[in-house]
């Protein structure tokens, strides 16, 4: 297992209050002649929880993939703390952006602790020779890495199950473990893709409290979610994507009161809205573009 070089603390990747952590400008993603995301701007500041909502097929996950290096945007750019992000997912993770996925992607046959230790790979420096020689420096770093992983498991309430296999955890706890693994990379921005999907109300409430606790550590959060009560209780701002375009952005009251948002969720057409045939073509193109890859953190593909 790799070794830790980050000093322990509440949130080593946290930013100064009010700092723009994420700045996405004009992000467009085309699959051949089909446009799944069109000219989307979005900013997330430190200390904020921002929601991204929209009907099925709106382009939310495609936009997430553009932010995290799984897709290279056809047009536009994504900046993290002012620097343009490299078009590689593992480099995006190393820069300070971590994410979870709509479908849980844990290492099922590894322990809970081992899953979190894998998430430390972008914050390690011990090379091959150090690992092979296993000198005192290696052992000290390995111990520090395990201590930080246990700290994160305590944070999400899983420290008592550190030696359990990930596959044996209940569904809600697997979601918590995936969040702990993402936090292991010490991000300044955490992206959550439908974190409450499949959860009961009690689990959803626990997830809400966990996200607030993450925010309180200075980590900005961007979340996709279909549970509107969850998203409006949680978020400082909400952006709505419809057919790949940002329809509106604002606080919960602004978004809930927008007639175009209501129409979009009811399936009613609005001015210049594409037809169902075009929407189906975009969804098919997105599905075709996704190819299964290794499930290692920072190297996954989505869906």
UniProtKB/TrEMBL annotation:
Stretch list, region Disordered: 277-303
Composition bias type Basic and acidic residues, residue spans: 285-303
Pfam families recorded: ABC_tran, BCA_ABC_TP_C
PROSITE patterns named among the record's database cross-references: ABC_TRANSPORTER_2 (PS50893)
Annotated ranges, domain ABC transporter: 22-268
CDD domains linked to this entry: ABC_Mj1267_LivG_branched (cd03219)
GO annotation, biological process: D-alanine transmembrane transport; L-alanine transport; L-isoleucine import across plasma membrane; L-valine import across plasma membrane
Gene Ontology molecular function: any one: ATP binding
Gene Ontology CC annotations of this record: plasma membrane
Entries under SMART domains matching the protein: AAA
Protein name: ABC transporter ATP-binding protein
InterPro entries: AAA+_ATPase, ABC_AA/LPS_Transport, ABC_transporter-like_ATP-bd, BCA_ABC_TP_C, P-loop_NTPase
Keywords: ATP-binding, Nucleotide-binding, Transport
